[in-house]
């Protein structure tokens, strides 16, 4: 398994379809590596129509991590999109105001990314909060996450 994790790139490179209206949903979920004191936040950007993950970053819950998520989204997606978030202040400071639409979860504009977060927790046992399958090494934690994202996008591309 380690050879698979080593060969999995830690960046997504998907070009946006030309001229299409793009809606992105961004959210973050909490997990940990080694112990609960080593909190990790998984920041994700999902394209609503195709359900592809177009950006991801693992870090803390700060403005800098929100910036890294935004930088992980290819420019072609950034230029032609509307971005929905849960209104976390970090997003408001990083995503350009003209395309950012902060909404509460009750509005339903981030339903797809919230559903993907649940799928991640169900299919990657390392992300279960009260499980025994946590990663003792950050390398394995990160590798499994990136592997799942690439697998998820490949399944979408195959259909």
Outline the fold blueprint.
Blueprint: H1 2-7, E1 22-32, E2 39-47, E3 53-59, H2 63-72, H3 75-79, E4 81-85, H4 89-94, E5 100-102, H5 111-123, H6 138-158
Parallel strand pairs: 1-4, 4-5
Antiparallel strand pairs: 1-2, 2-3
Runs in which pLDDT lies below 50 for 5 or more consecutive residues are: none
Helix content: 25-40%
Biggest beta sheet summary: 5 strands, mixed
Radius of gyration: 15 Å
User: What is the average per-residue confidence, as pLDDT, rounded to a whole number?
Assistant: 83
State the main characteristics:
globular, single chain, five-stranded mixed beta sheet, alpha/beta, 159 residues, 38% helix, 5 strands
Task: Explain the overall architecture.
- The structure is a single chain.
- This protein has 159 residues and is of the alpha/beta class.
- The protein contains 6 helices and 5 strands.
- The protein has a 5-stranded mixed beta sheet with strand order 3-2-1-4-5, with helices on both faces.
- Helix 4 links the parallel strand 4 (81-85) and strand 5.
- The protein starts with a helix and ends with a helix.
- The mean pLDDT is 83.
Task: Put the structure in a nutshell.
With 159 residues, the chain is α/β, with parallel strands linked by helices. It has helices spanning 2-7, 63-72, 75-79, 89-94, 111-123, 138-158; strands at 22-32, 39-47, 53-59, 81-85, 100-102. It has a 5-stranded mixed beta sheet with strand order 3-2-1-4-5, sandwiched between helices.
